[in-house]
């Protein structure tokens, strides 16, 4: 049974991200596995195979040889690469020829000086950006060659460097295995050749499917040639409890795969020693309308059957007796010979490494439809963070538009770096709608896409974002309204976090203070706030959620929300005194994946969407993942961090202004050293005092286990979490420059 997946597409649908993977394009066939790079950042996966020819390889320089041959050795065999290109929807390979007095295709009429050798050792006389049978370079097709008399820049034979580049995209000719360069035998002739890796996109085999609509529907193919070895794999999806997947008959010999009951798949065959049947029993129902994978193999020694990840059932062949499977009839997929056929979908059916084109055959067969719907039932869970799974004819995609994330699975944080004084405002209703308009339209239809504030008065809201900063105090986020109501998330002067609600009914705003943690430590922190009526739940980083309750007198409606601010509050009318104080100079640092109910203001600013008209930005917003969760590096303890200065006592000039003249700088350095020494002594004292008194009044918390030995709350999390890798986050880097 296959240890490797058949393609990058298959790895993507196991929820894997871009990386190098081993793929086995023909199952257990003769090709064997190869290592490729799978790029999953777009809707369709790119598979890349590399070779060893350096970019800009020099050839010639007055060499006496007539021809110079450049050989490309790939990290895979030509047959393996052919298996990838033939199942791909599109392939390309970059090729470039830089020349100085060295002609390329000898256009318009002559015999080409240079050519490339592709699949099956065929010579090709066209160049990148052009196509088979057209002896032109890209500039000849686009009609912008340096000298219009020629169809390649190099053919003009200039003494200055020129080049012809482009993509070769006729996949039946790829990959390039050799480039043969000819025009090098004159003094002063030089050339440089570059060939990129082969890149292929899409996988026609993985989604090649047919839906069997009636129990008498079937597709037929030519006789299966599996005399001594058979390797059959496919996916099926059904809500019926039984049915034949496929069958091929001989005089007495046969081979057959069927769903015997809702929990049993059977593989049976006869090579002349009497029928053999292998059955896999699944603990779960197989007719649950989810995709299940079947892999059946038979050779002269043994036969095996595997369903999904269940244990493989193996049957040894008898030592004596017949070994050849002799079949004559056509291969039937679905109902065969009056038996009850299969109702549902079969896809990616491979027989001895060859994918049968179910889709093409289904187009001309009554009772069978090409393609299959309902991929989201099996793969929808890969759409993360509230992304919606969207059915496609051949597969699915994740719609991240209602989330603060991006990427094929909605897991890429969308974030930005805020310089001091920068701010962003997101208006909850479109420019140009008056309040009265808004009220009447909201009452008429809350589904109106123009109105992104879900209700005029909110009884509940959900807010989540992550941030990192080294400056306090500041306003991280503020939501204003057309009434005195507001909500704010602040970092107080000492670096602690405060959530502030003012919904009316109370003299003072209701504050939630998280005093015992410094949030302005340059580390990314995540904040999730959910309010439902009076109940507020706050979750910070990886700590357990904590519950709070608005005072009994407080109103529980957030009336007429108007706009959301990031970085700074620029709002007309009376503004809360503390917020006014914290507002200058403004937030400096990173904010990421900001989401308020269905609204993602940062994403609307950075990705053009239909809500981008709601956004106003002051300053230049630079996309960055420096505020992205999860945390990436353990913060240095104060004792080991040479740059540690207590933010309350020292204003560290990390904007890059110099500290006066040399005398000042020296005294600053000496002062710094003394500060570090004193700080170290203080830390040691605190540690000793804590150690001596740690048994008195012990205070138990359910914090991470690594907490006792860790220097800070963040370090405790990271000691506990294996996923933290050593990458310096950007806000720190700036600080160190």
UniProtKB/TrEMBL annotation:
Residues 1-51 form the Fibrinogen C-terminal domain. InterPro entries: ConA-like_dom_sf (IPR013320), EGF (IPR000742), Fibrinogen-like_C (IPR036056), Fibrinogen_a/b/g_C_dom (IPR002181), Laminin_G (IPR001791), Neurexin-like (IPR003585), Neurexin-related_CASP (IPR050372). One of its GO terms (cellular component) is membrane. Residues 373-411 form the EGF-like domain. GO terms for biological process: cell adhesion. Residues 208-372, 440-626 form the Laminin G domain. The chain crosses the membrane at residues 668-689. It is a single-pass type I membrane protein. Pfam families: Laminin_G_2 (PF02210). It is found in: Membrane. Disulfide bonds join 345-372. Keywords: Cell adhesion, Disulfide bond, EGF-like domain, Glycoprotein, Membrane, Repeat, Signal, Transmembrane, Transmembrane helix. Belongs to the neurexin family. NCBIfam families: GGGWT_bact. This is CNTP2 protein. It comes from Ptilonorhynchus violaceus (Satin bowerbird).
């Amino acid at each position: 049974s296959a240890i490797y997946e058949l393609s990058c597409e298959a790895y993507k649908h196991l929820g894997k991200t871009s990386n190098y993977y081993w793929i086995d394009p023909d199952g257990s066939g003769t090709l064997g596995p190869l290592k490729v790079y799978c790029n999953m950042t777009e809707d369709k996966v790119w598979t890349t195979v590399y070779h060893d020819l350096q970019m800009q390889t020099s050839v010639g320089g007055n060499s006496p040889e007539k021809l110079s041959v450049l050989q490309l050795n790939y990290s895979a065999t030509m047959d393996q690469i052919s298996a990838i290109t033939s199942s791909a929807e599109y392939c390309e390979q970059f090729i470039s020829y830089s020349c100085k007095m060295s002609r390329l295709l000898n256009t318009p009429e002559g015999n080409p000086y240079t050519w490339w050798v592709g699949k099956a050792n065929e010579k090709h006389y066209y160049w990148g950006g052009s196509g088979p049978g057209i002896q032109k370079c890209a500039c000849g097709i686009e009609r912008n060659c340096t000298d219009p008399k020629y169809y390649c820049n190099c053919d003009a034979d200039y003494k200055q460097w020129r080049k012809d580049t482009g993509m070769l995209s006729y996949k039946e000719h790829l990959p390039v295995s050799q480039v043969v360069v000819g025009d090098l035998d004159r003094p002063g002739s030089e050339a440089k050749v570059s060939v990129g890796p082969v890149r292929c996109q899409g996988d026609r085999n993985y989604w090649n499917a047919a839906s069997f609509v009636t129990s008498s529907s079937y597709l037929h193919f030519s006789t299966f040639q599996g005399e001594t070895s058979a390797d059959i794999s496919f996916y099926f999806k059904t809500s019926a409890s039984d049915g034949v997947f496929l069958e091929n008959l001989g005089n007495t010999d046969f081979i057959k795969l069927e769903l015997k009951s809702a929990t049993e798949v059977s593989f049976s065959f006869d090579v002349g020693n009497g029928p053999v049947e292998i059955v896999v029993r699944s603990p779960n129902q197989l007719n649950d309308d989810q995709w299940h994978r079947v892999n059946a193999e038979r050779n002269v020694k043994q036969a095996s059957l595997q369903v999904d990840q269940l244990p493989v059932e193996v049957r040894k062949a008898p030592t004596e007796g017949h070994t050849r499977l002799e079949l004559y009839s056509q291969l039937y997929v679905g109902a065969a010979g009056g038996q009850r056929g299969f109702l549902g979908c079969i896809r990616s059916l491979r027989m001895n490494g060859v994918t049968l084109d179910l889709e093409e055959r289904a187009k001309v067969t009554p009772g069978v439809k090409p393609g299959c719907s309902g991929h989201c039932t099996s793969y929808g869970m890969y759409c993360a963070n509230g992304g919606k799974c969207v059915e496609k004819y051949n597969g699915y995609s994740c719609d991240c538009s209602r989330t603060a994330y991006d990427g094929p699975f909605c897991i890429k944080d969308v974030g930005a770096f805020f310089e001091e004084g920068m701010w962003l405002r997101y208006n909850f209703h479109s420019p140009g709608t008056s309040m009265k308009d808004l009220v009447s339209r909201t009452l008429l239809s809350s589904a109106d896409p123009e109105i992104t504030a879900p209700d005029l008065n909110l009884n509940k809201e959900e807010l989540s974002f992550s941030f990192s900063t080294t400056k306090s105090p500041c306003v991280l986020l503020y939501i204003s309204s057309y009434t005195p109501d507001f909500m704010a998330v602040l970092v107080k002067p000492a670096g602690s976090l405060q959530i502030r609600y003012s919904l009316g009914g109370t003299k003072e705003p209701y504050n939630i203070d998280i005093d015992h943690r410094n949030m302005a430590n340059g580390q990314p922190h995540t904040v999730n706030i959910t309010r439902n009526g009076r109940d507020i739940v706050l979750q910070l980083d990886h700590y357990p959620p904590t519950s709070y309750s608005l005072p009994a007198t407080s109103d529980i409606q957030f009336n007429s929300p108007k706009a959301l601010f990031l970085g700074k509050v620029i709002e007309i009318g009376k503004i809360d005194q503390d917020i006014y104080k914290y507002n200058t100079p403004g937030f400096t640092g990173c904010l990421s994946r900001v989401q308020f109910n269905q609204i993602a203001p940062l994403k609307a600013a950075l990705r053009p969407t239909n809500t981008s008209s709601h956004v106003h930005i002051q300053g230049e917003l630079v996309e960055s993942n420096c505020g992205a969760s999860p945390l990436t590096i353990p913060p240095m303890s104060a004792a080991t961090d040479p740059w540690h200065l207590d933010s309350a006592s020292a204003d560290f000039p990390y904007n890059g202004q110099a500290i006066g003249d040399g005398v000042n700088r020296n005294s600053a350095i000496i002062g710094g050293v003394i500060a570090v020494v004193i700080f170290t002594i203080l830390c040691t004292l605190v540690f000793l005092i804590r150690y001596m008194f740690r048994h008195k009044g012990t205070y138990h918390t359910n914090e991470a286990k690594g907490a006792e030995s860790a220097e800070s709350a963040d370090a405790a999390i990271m000691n506990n979490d294996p996923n933290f890798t050593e990458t310096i986050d950007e806000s720190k880097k700036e600080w160190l420059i």
